[in-house]
Structures are given as structure tokens and as C-alpha cells.
Design brief:
alpha/beta, Rossmann fold, 2 domains, seven-stranded mixed sheet, 12 helices, 41% helix, 17% strand, elongated
């Protein structure tokens, strides 16, 4: 399945990120000749765009021609639009495997009056439309973490030629974290936000080893990363942990209903250990403690 096809079939965000309330329809925007109103793009997209521009090289040294960014599987082009609002961005390449999303992105870019010399649309799958090292920062958002791994693994040399990534996996974020660690792509930031009732995990990573990056002591850390909990507001951290507790309790209950409990004994034990860990983290969260220190490289 293509990355963009999966994204389209499973999009959970509804219209929360729409920039244009009327979709360009004059009657919907309040009358002939009036510009469509711009809607709040939402915290998810704002975080993605912000993290894409936070590489230490960009902040310390800049680039005379501006940061070169890419939005892979661009869909409506909203993340690219947000990045283009920053003067530090010189150019954004928007890619998608289907022509329909690129047509939508083009319309939104043209409606926004973004300088056409600062953006380019390319048809293609994953990272294939990009030349080696052509982008400083690459955004891959709104698809499964397993599919993101496939995109990166298809040409790991090409994947490692870009300085920074921002991922927003719809699911299997732990699978993506495992892949990044195994391929020496270093996680430098983790965020979580809520959009339309869905928890959205956002991961920033760099290909050159930084001074500080996230490390993991156990499998549960890949599911509940210490950096994410540290960066989250206390209320959001608690919501994230409570969501994990609910899912783990459902897993436990399903195992207990199994027709062969002995076969699932190891899985039950691991699930109970995970629930215990989540309870411990919730207690720390309630006490105002944070996960810090030895979990960072």
C-alpha cells in the first residue's frame, strides 16, 4: 500500500487542520469577491511545522538561501503552508503519490498567495522524488509508523542524507522508534497533542549524532517515551498515560478470556508489568515528578 493511500483511507483528523472555511466557494465565505477565511490549523500541524525548523544548524548558522524543507505525502499541503510562513524557510518541496492531493495542495498554496518560487510540487512515492541531501528537514506525517519505516528503509543511504525529520505516526510509534534507534537516527524531541479526540505523537530526529538524544532502557520506553512525558504539559502527560492504561487493561482482559491461558501466560505477565509501570508513571505525574537523567544519551 502506498504511504499516501494509507493516509487517505485512515485520516482521523477530519477537517481540524483546514485552512479555508469555505473551500474557495464565494457564497460560503460570505459573498462574491470576499476571500475565504483562514481557520486555525490546529496544534498538531503547528507543532510539526515548528519542530521541522528547529535543527541546531538552522538556528545557529542559518542558510543564505533559507532552510530547504520537504513535506512527504503532503495531502492538502497545510504543513508546508505553515513552514512557508517563516522567513527562514527558503523552499518547500511537497510530494505525494497521487495527483489529487497535489492538486488540492496547489490550490491552497495559490489561495494563500505563497510565493511560487518558494514551493514545488512533485509526484512520487515516499522519498523517491527527492535528490540526495536536497532537503534539510523532512516532514512525514499522518500515516502508520510501520509504513514510515518502509519509506526510510527503501534507500537508507538516501534517508540518512537529510539532516532532520519530523514524524507524526498515526499508529505503531514504537515500531518507528525501534527503527530509528537501530539505524542510528537520533530522536531529539518528542511531543504529544490532542486533535479531534485523537492523541497525536510527534517525533523529531536527526541523522548526525547530537549531544543530547533520547535513549531507551526497556521495550515499554518505546511505547511510553521518557522525553515525551517530560516535554508534555502535566495534564496531557496524564491523559497519554491513562490512554495507555486503558489499552493495556483491555489487552489483559482479552488474554484472561483466552481459551488457553497457559499459552498466553508470558504475554499476560508482560502486560501486567506494563500496567504496573504505567501506574508508577501516573503516580509520579500526580506528584509533579518528571522522567529525566539517565534516559538521555
Amino acid at each position: 500500500m502506498s504511504s499516501e493511500a494509507e493516509r487517505s483511507d485512515e485520516r482521523p483528523y477530519a477537517s481540524g487542520g483546514d485552512f479555508f472555511a469555505s473551500g474557495g466557494n464565494p457564497s460560503a465565505s460570505g459573498g462574491e469577491g470576499r476571500r475565504p477565511r483562514r481557520r486555525d490549523p490546529g496544534e498538531r500541524l503547528r507543532l510539526i511545522a515548528s519542530l521541522a525548523l528547529e535543527h541546531r544548524d538552522f538556528l545557529e548558522h542559518g542558510r543564505p538561501s533559507g532552510i530547504r524543507a520537504a513535506d512527504i505525502g503532503t495531502d492538502h499541503g497545510y504543513a508546508a503552508l505553515l513552514m512557508l510562513e517563516h522567513e527562514s524557510v527558503g523552499r518547500v518541496i511537497l510530494t505525494d503519490i497521487n495527483e489529487g492531493p497535489l492538486a488540492r495542495a496547489r490550490k491552497h498554496l495559490e489561495d494563500s498567495k505563497a510565493d511560487p518560487s518558494r514551493w514545488e510540487l512533485r509526484l512520487g512515492n515516499g522519498l523517491e522524488p527527492l535528490e540526495r541531501g536536497e532537503a534539510d528537514s523532512v516532514v512525514i506525517a499522518g500515516m502508520g509508523g510501520d509504513l514510515m519505516c518502509d519509506i526510510l528503509a527503501k534507500d537508507i543511504s538516501l534517508s540518512r542524507s537529510f539532516k532532520r525529520y519530523v514524524f507524526q505516526p498515526r499508529r505503531a510509534a514504537d515500531t518507528l522508534r525501534h527503527f530509528l534507534v537501530d539505524n542510528n537516527i537520533y530522536i531529539v524531541d518528542e511531543r504529544v497533542c490532542l486533535e479531534n479526540g485523537h492523541l497525536c505523537q510527534i517525533i523529531a530526529a536527526e541523522c548526525k549524532r547530537p549531544e543530547v538524544f533520547e535513549s531507551f532502557e526497556s521495550d515499554i520506553d518505546y511505547e511510553i517515551p521518557p522525553m515525551l512525558l517530560e516535554k508534555a504539559e502535566p495534564e496531557m502527560a496524564r491523559f497519554f498515560l491513562e490512554d495507555w492504561r486503558r489499552r493495556l487493561e483491555e489487552r489483559r482482559d482479552n488474554i484472561l478470556k483466552s481459551s488457553d491461558p497457559a499459552r498466553d501466560r508470558a504475554r499476560l505477565g508482560e502486560t501486567l508489568r506494563r500496567i504496573e509501570r504505567v501506574e508508577e508513571l501516573l503516580a509520579r505525574c500526580g506528584a509533579g515528578e518528571q522522567e529525566k537523567g539517565p534516559r538521555y544519551g
